[in-house]
Design a protein that fits this description.
- The complex is a heterodimer of chains A (294) and B (280).
- Chain A is built from 10 helices and 11 strands.
- Chain A has 294 residues and is of the alpha/beta class.
- Chain A folds into 2 domains: 128 residues, Rossmann fold (3-Layer(aba) Sandwich); 119 residues, Isopropylmalate Dehydrogenase, CATH 3.40.718.
- In chain A, strands 8-7-9-6-5-10 form a 6-stranded mixed sheet, sandwiched between helices.
- Chain A is globular, with a radius of gyration of 18 Å.
- The two termini of chain A are 27 Å apart.
- Chain B is globular, with a radius of gyration of 18 Å.
- Chain B is built from 10 helices and 10 strands.
- In chain B, helix 2 links the parallel strand 1 and strand 2.
- Chain B has a single domain, classed as Isopropylmalate Dehydrogenase, CATH 3.40.718.10.
- Chain B has a 10-stranded mixed sheet with strand order 2-1-3-10-9-4-5-8-6-7, sandwiched between helices.
- Classes of the chains: A alpha/beta (294), B alpha/beta (280).
- The interface between A and B is large, with 34 and 38 residues.
Chain lengths: 294, 280
C-alpha cells in the first residue's frame, strides 16, 4: 500500500474502501446538531459512508430542512433522550451494525463514558487519546499531533499508550516505518529507549522541537508529534489550522471502534476528512483483526 | 452571525515598527560567531544607523566579558549570534546585574492571515512559569508592546479550552489572571483567559463558543503560553508554516537582547535588532 500523506488521499482511501464493498457505517449519538448532520450527509453523498442518526427525529429533520441538507440514504432512529441516544448508537457499534460512532449534541465525556461501558465490550487495552492529523501546506505529509484533546498531562505510562494508539493510525495510513518525534523527555524516565524497544520502532527521537521534528531522520520528517501536555498539542495544532490553512482530521483512538467528533468551527473539509480517517481506521481494524475476537 | 470587527491598534505592521526605530546608534555587543543571515542583519542595522557594534565575542564562554560592559554602562543591547541561549541567560541572571527580575522571551509576529501584530511569550526562558512568574511575564510583555506602539495590549493566556476545570491548572491560572486584570491588579494590559488559540484570534470561533463579551477573544494582541513547549511550538509553527514576519527579544534584564532561531532569515534577525533598540 502506498502511504497516505494528505487529507485528499485520506478521503480517496475511504472512498475506495467503500467501492470495494466495505463502506463503513457511522452511528451518531444525539444527532440533533446541524454541523454533524451536514458532515454525515455530505460524506454519504460523496459515497464513502453510511449513517444512522440516533436522536430527536423531529429536531433532526427540522435542522436538515433549515440547512437545506438531504437525509437521503441515511437512517434516522428516534430517541429524544440524549443519554439513551448515546447508548443506542454505541450498542449499534457493539452489535456490528456500525463501524464507528460520532458525537452529536452531547458532551464528549458523556459519549466516551458510554463507549467505555463494559456491557458493550468496546474497550481496548489503552487509554483513549485524540489524534489530530494535520495536512500542513509546506510539509510533505501529515503530522499527527497527539494528544491535544484528551489527556491533560500524561505520565510516562499514559504517554506510551498515546504512542501505541498513534501507531495504530500510522499503520492504517501505511506508514512504514512511522517516524516519531517526542517533544519532551523527562529525566525520570527512559521514554525514547523504552518505546523503541517495546514497539521495535526504528525511528523515534526526543526531545525535539517542531522545527527539528519536521527534519528528523535526514529530512524524512516526523509522522507523529508526541506532545507533553494537552495545551502543547491543542494550541500549536490550532495555530497551524487557523494561520497556515492546515487541514485537520481528528479521531479518538483506543477503543475497538474509532470515535469521531467535529466542531462548529471546523471547515467542511476538516469535517469530511475527520470522518474519512475514522473510516480508514475502522477498515484497518476489521481487515487486520486488530482486536481479535470480540 | 453579526460579528464585531477586531480592534486594530495604530501600529499593526513590521514596517511601522521599523519606522519607530531611532537612528541613535545603540551600542551593541554581538555574542558568538555569526551565520550569513546574522551578518546581513547586523550590517543593515549598522548602515541604517540603528546600532554600532562595540565588540564581537567569539563565544559566550566568559561571563565577565558580557557583564562588564553592561555594568559599566558601555553598551545598550546584546545581539545573540549563532550560540546557545542558555549561557547568555545565565549571564544576564547570575552576573549580579539582573537582580531578581524575571527575564522573558517576547516574540513579535505578523502572521499573514491575522490583521495585526501578535506578540507571544515565553518560548525560551521560563520552562514552566508559575502564576507569580506569569504576572511578571505579562508586565515585561506590556513594556515591549508599549515600545512598539501597542498601548494596553489584549493578552490571552492560551489553553486547550475556554472552560475552567479545577484539574487543568492552566485554565485556573488563566482565569485568575483575567480576574486580576478586571480588578486593576495587572497594569498596562487587558487580560482574559483561559482562551483556546482559535477563540483568542478568531471572532467567529469566539462567538461560536459563546465568548461574546471578552475584550480579548477574537482580537488578541498577545498570547501568554502556559509553558516553554507551547511558546516555542507556537513560535516555530508561526515562523515555519504561517509565513509570519517576526522578531524576538529577551527583556527583563539590564539590557535587552536580540535573539534568533536557527531557521530565522536575515529579515527576522534584523527585526529582532530593531525590537532590541526600541526596548532599551
Amino acid at each position: 500500500m502506498e502511504p497516505i500523506v494528505s487529507s485528499d488521499q485520506l478521503i480517496e482511501q475511504a472512498t475506495s474502501i467503500a467501492n470495494a464493498g466495505r463502506r463503513k457505517t457511522v452511528a451518531v449519538a444525539a444527532a440533533q446538531d446541524a454541523d454533524v448532520i451536514g458532515a454525515v450527509a455530505s460524506a454519504r453523498a460523496d459515497g464513502y459512508i453510511n449513517g444512522t442518526l440516533v436522536g430527536d427525529e423531529a429536531e433532526i429533520r427540522s435542522l436538515a430542512e433549515q440547512n437545506d441538507v438531504s437525509l437521503e440514504g441515511l437512517t434516522v432512529i428516534d430517541e429524544t433522550d440524549v443519554f439513551k441516544a448515546a447508548h443506542k448508537a454505541v450498542s449499534l457499534a457493539a452489535e456490528g451494525k456500525a463501524d464507528l460512532v460520532m458525537k452529536g449534541f452531547l458532551p464528549t465525556s458523556g459519549l466516551l463514558k458510554v463507549v467505555l461501558d463494559k456491557q458493550y465490550g468496546l474497550r481496548g487495552h489503552n487509554t483513549l487519546s485524540h489524534c489530530a492529523l494535520l495536512d500542513i501546506p509546506g510539509y510533505h505529509k501529515m503530522l499527527n499531533f497527539t494528544d491535544g484533546g484528551m489527556l491533560v498531562k500524561p505520565d510516562a505510562s499514559q504517554k506510551m499508550q498515546v504512542l501505541d494508539n498513534s501507531l495504530l493510525v500510522a499503520s492504517a495510513l501505511g506508514l512504514e516505518p512511522p517516524r516519531v518525534a517526542v517533544t519532551q523527555v523527562h529525566e525520570s524516565d527512559n521514554f525514547v529507549e523504552d518505546a523503541r524497544k517495546q514497539y521495535g520502532l526504528a525511528v523515534i527521537d526526543g526531545p525535539l522541537t517542531l522545527h527539528e521534528a519536521t527534519r528528523m531522520d535526514n529530512g524524512a520528517g516526523a509522522d507523529i508529534f508526541l506532545v507533553d501536555s494537552i495545551e502543547e498539542g491543542n494550541v500549536v495544532a490550532k495555530s497551524l489550522i487557523n494561520f497556515a490553512d492546515a487541514v485537520f482530521s481528528g479521531v479518538i483512538v483506543g477503543a475497538r471502534i474509532p470515535v469521531s467528533l467535529v466542531s462548529r468551527t471546523d471547515s467542511v473539509k476538516n469535517k469530511k476528512s475527520s470522518l474519512a480517517i475514522a473510516c480508514v481506521l475502522a477498515d484497518y481494524y476489521a481487515q487486520n483483526n486488530v482486536w481479535g475476537e470480540a | 452571525m453579526n460579528l464585531p470587527q477586531p480592534f486594530i491598534p495604530e501600529v499593526h505592521s513590521f514596517e511601522q515598527i521599523r519606522g519607530l526605530a531611532s537612528k541613535g546608534a545603540a551600542r551593541a555587543v554581538v555574542i558568538g560567531p555569526t551565520v550569513p543571515e546574522a551578518d546581513d542583519a547586523i550590517n543593515k542595522a549598522t548602515s541604517d544607523g540603528l546600532i554600532s557594534i562595540v565588540h564581537q565575542l567569539k563565544d559566550a564562554g566568559s561571563l565577565s566579558e558580557i557583564t562588564e560592559p553592561i555594568t559599566t554602562g558601555k553598551i545598550d543591547l546584546l545581539i545573540q549570534g549563532a550560540t546557545s541561549l542558555c549561557p547568555l541567560i545565565s549571564a544576564l541572571k547570575t552576573g549580579g546585574i539582573g537582580g531578581k527580575s524575571v527575564l522573558n522571551h517576547v516574540a513579535v509576529l505578523k502572521p499573514e492571515q491575522y490583521p495585526k501584530l501578535l506578540m507571544l511569550t515565553d518560548g525560551a526562558v521560563n520552562t514552566d512559569p508559575d502564576l507569580k512568574t506569569k504576572i511578571s511575564l505579562i508586565a515585561n510583555l506590556a513594556r515591549v508592546a508599549r515600545a512598539i506602539g501597542v498601548e494596553n495590549p489584549r493578552v490571552a493566556p492560551v489553553a486547550a479550552v475556554e472552560a475552567i476545570y479545577p484539574q487543568m491548572n492552566v485554565t485556573v491560572e488563566g482565569a485568575v489572571l483575567a480576574k486580576m486584570s478586571d480588578r486593576g491588579q495587572i497594569k498596562d494590559a487587558m487580560v482574559d483567559g483561559p482562551l483556546s488559540f482559535d477563540v483568542a484570534v478568531d471572532m467567529f470561533a469566539a462567538h461560536s463558543k459563546g465568548i461574546t463579551t471578552s475584550a480579548v477573544a477574537g482580537q488578541a494582541d498577545a498570547l501568554l503560553a502556559s509553558n516553554v513547549q507551547v511558546g516555542r511550538g507556537l513560535y516555530e509553527a508561526m515562523g515555519m508554516f504561517c509565513k509570519a514576519e517576526r522578531g524576538a527579544v529577551i527583556v527583563g534584564g539590564p539590557v535587552p537582547m536580540a535573539v534568533n532561531e536557527p531557521f530565522d532569515d536575515s529579515e527576522a534577525r534584523y527585526n529582532s535588532i530593531v525590537l532590541a533598540t526600541l526596548c532599551k
